[in-house]
Design goal:
alpha/beta, Aminopeptidase, Aminopeptidase i, Domain 2, 9-stranded mixed β-sheet, 6-stranded antiparallel β-sheet, globular, binds manganese (II) ion
Length: 461
């Protein structure tokens, strides 16, 4: 069955403007927030302004929570959960919007700095699934933190302002690439060769060794008050430099770094921000580490979310373990992550009846996985039916899809981890072109329909 193009709902100028205005807020957010830490602090600030109280403060004050109260908790500056308390007790379940705020990139190694032939370089270890050959010859920026032994944190953000320098990974000139061009794509640029060039002027010192590196260290000391050893306790991410941009003559799309999965995180947050007077407690859960398997203290496998719900239940007067278990089991989740948009340049990996298309709205993937649905959550038919009704009643444009043809490849999300808690979960989200490339593309109307779908889900009874 064919789904209609959602732009057809927004033919009047004033209606189209609403879609474009929402997308413009997102474009700015995407341009300014390129790491999980930056996204987390952006959403924390937004939540504070919107009247969400910090959970720690509520606990310290010892005040009980009641319907309509807004609370948020942050985990190690990289993960956030925001809640709007519903009219029903938590043990009757929550409506949860989950998305991730980490994106594929190059991370600096712990001992990154070296000099080779009068060039200062930074060694990296790539994060997440990348086609390594896509990350060369691009202007790159450095974002992150250096934490010094005294606990002080130095924020690093270089390469974004018009007069900032940029950095990058070089590639072999075509003239000398005869052998390289014969290699298979996974070997054209190898992981250990993703080294970032950061300087080439030798310092004025007397010794002849590594004067370029010494000069860089002098600059780092002067501008950031950090020394070489401080890289040991740093998290610096090498990301594409520059703003997200409108894409296409009709400006219907946005090209930017990190749509996966900020294009779901942003409308999820915006949906809970306007959430008031809800029947079931609304949750927006923004997690880290999805791109490397949802592991670690700030990934979806962490106990953070359960612990936070337990704290909330104590504050709403439901303190038994049984009530806590019921709260999990009775919950419903839109686990949002990007879906592969149908690409006219590569139709052979898609099965057209079950693919996601630009402009056709919020995407539901009943299942993801690879090699016979392995690793998939596979939402139940009953839950899918319920969501169809919620979306249709709210006139939300949605489509259903699989991640490509059977056995063409595959992928996973955080959905199954919430499924493990015995919640009703479905994969949903926004279609992306160029997924995991330095510059990904989304459709503005899909972003807007996702937002509308999330609102309808939170408000559903
Ligand atoms: Mn993702
Ligand atoms: Mn991804």
């Amino acid at each position: 069955m064919e789904r209609t193009n959602a732009w057809k709902k927004y033919t009047k100028e004033e209606d189209k403007k609403v879609v474009f205005d929402f997308a413009e807020g997102y474009r700015k957010f995407l341009s300014e927030n390129k790491t999980e830490r930056e996204c987390c602090s952006f959403f924390e600030e937004q939540a504070r302004v919107a009247g969400f109280q910090k959970l720690e403060d509520v606990i310290a004050a010892g005040t009980a929570l009641k319907a309509g109260d807004k609370v948020y908790a942050v985990n190690k500056k990289k993960e956030m959960a925001a809640f709007v308390i519903g009219k029903r007790p938590l043990s009757e379940g929550m409506h949860i919007l989950g998305a991730h705020i980490d994106s594929p990139r190059l991370d600096l190694k712990q001992n990154p700095l070296y000099e080779d032939t009068d060039m200062a370089m930074l060694d990296t270890h790539y994060y997440g699934g990348v086609k390594k050959y896509q990350w060369v010859t691009l202007p790159l920026a450095l974002h992150g933190v250096v934490v010094k032994k005294d606990g002080s944190v130095v924020n690093v953000n270089v390469g974004e302002k018009a007069d900032d320098p940029v950095f990058g990974v070089s590639d072999l000139l075509i003239h000398l690439a005869d052998e390289q061009m014969e290699k298979k794509a996974s070997k054209v640029v190898e992981g250990e060769d993703l080294n970032v060039l950061i300087g080439s002027i030798p310092g004025a010192g007397e010794e002849e060794k590594e004067r370029v590196k010494a000069n860089i260290l002098e600059i780092l000391c002067k501008e950031y008050d950090i020394e070489e050893e401080d890289f040991l306790s740093a998290e610096i991410e090498v990301v594409p430099a520059g703003e997200a941009r409108d894409y296409g003559f009709d400006r219907s799309m946005i090209m930017g770094y990190g749509h996966d999965d900020r294009v779901c995180a942003y409308p999820s947050y915006k949906a809970i921000e306007q959430s008031t007077d809800v029947e079931y407690t609304s949750v927006c859960l923004l997690v880290d580490k999805e791109e490397i398997g949802s592991v670690g203290a700030t990934g979806m496998h962490s106990r953070f979310f359960e612990n936070t719900v337990a704290e909330l239940m104590a504050l709403t007067g439901e303190t038994s373990d049984l009530q806590f278990r019921r709260a999990l089991t009775n919950s419903k989740v839109l686990s949002s992550d990007v879906s592969a948009a149908f690409d006219p340049n590569y139709p052979s990996v898609m099965e057209k009846k079950n693919a996601a298309y630009f402009g056709r709205g919020l995407v539901f993937n009943k299942y993801t996985g690879a090699r016979g649905k392995s690793g998939s959550n596979d939402a139940s038919a009953e839950y899918v039916a319920e969501l169809r009704k919620v979306m249709d009643d709210a006139d939300v444009s949605f489509q259903t899809s699989e991640l490509g043809k059977v056995d063409a490849g595959g992928g996973g999300t955080i959905a199954y981890i919430l499924g493990n808690l015995d919640m009703q979960v479905i994969d949903s989200g926004v279609a992306v072109l160029n997924m995991h490339a330095p510059w990904e593309i989304i459709s503005k109307v899909d972003l807007y329909e996702a937002y509308r779908g999330y609102v309808a889900f939170l408000e559903s009874k």
